[in-house]
């Protein structure tokens, strides 16, 4: 069996060395967490708490659990085979990779638009420019960071930003438990289980914890990480599980913040990106103090900016790899850059179309993600149960059962949403 940590020739590796080795091995899982803790957490989880209190906490945990097998496929398949998920799709047939690439292209443009507008909205707290112009600045900055910094800089930067946001959010929630109740007299919390709320529920679950195609990013990031440091199967799975656990727990933390500070106050999040950003930072400053407003704003901005960079990098890498495998051409940095520029340009066009309406854009993107999730989930399940994979690396009975439950849930809500749209 491979050892999780290196051993000294004379004595066991010290706790400090083990910790340093563990942190150095982290990367793809943390990047996945950074991609998740964007719109799904800052927006959906916080909004769920603000509108429905704690009622949707169990739903968030259930969604994370039911999607786990499909996300885990990225790390497990690559660790077992040394290849990306996209190589696996192609081995099953060209049509599988074409299907993935087609849906991934649509998701790339829509998701880039969503996270970019959210970043631009946060940036309005510091720069008095239009949200469209700020979106252009965000996109150009993201591309420059990726072109000149590559994976190494993205890996290091994300770890620091994630740590800062996690600490500040945990502190804010801890303090929020001690503030006086914000509920207005006679307030009755509405149930989320009403027919009119189906759209919101599907949108929340679409990016909770992230779109399932993110599993392919994790696969490619793991291969990139292995270029600079050997990663064992155990390390790859540990890294993924650690990042996934963080996303699930922080989703509840953000819901708690919305519930404790906003639920029952009579205030609702604005659809305007500029006003939404101000409302979000106000949630923190109400419990941490007004003097922390700009500090928290900076941390939140850096968090969502890292999400934007991660989204552009992840989608561009998968689109580039898909093109490379389908055309049998060599890898090309120029092609990767061209894909980044194209995705960003089309994403900016969508932002201009929505004219600063942040929540409608994010709901559109999240619903789109949920409706395509069924196919991405099926592709990953097919890979992890294939005879082409070594028997010891395939999903066992427990993961198969969990996968089936996940597929039933995804298909059920997809059908329910379609019926809701038709009868609305």
From TrEMBL:
This is Divalent metal cation transporter. GO terms for molecular function: metal ion transmembrane transporter activity. It comes from Shewanella hanedai. It comes from the Bacteria. Pfam families: Nramp. GO terms for cellular component: membrane. It is a multi-pass membrane protein. The keyword ATP-binding does not apply. Keywords: Membrane, Transmembrane, Transmembrane helix. InterPro entries: NRAMP_fam. The chain crosses the membrane at residues 21-43, 55-75, 96-127, 133-153, 160-179, 199-221, 242-262, 294-315, 336-354, 360-381, 401-422. It is found in: Membrane.
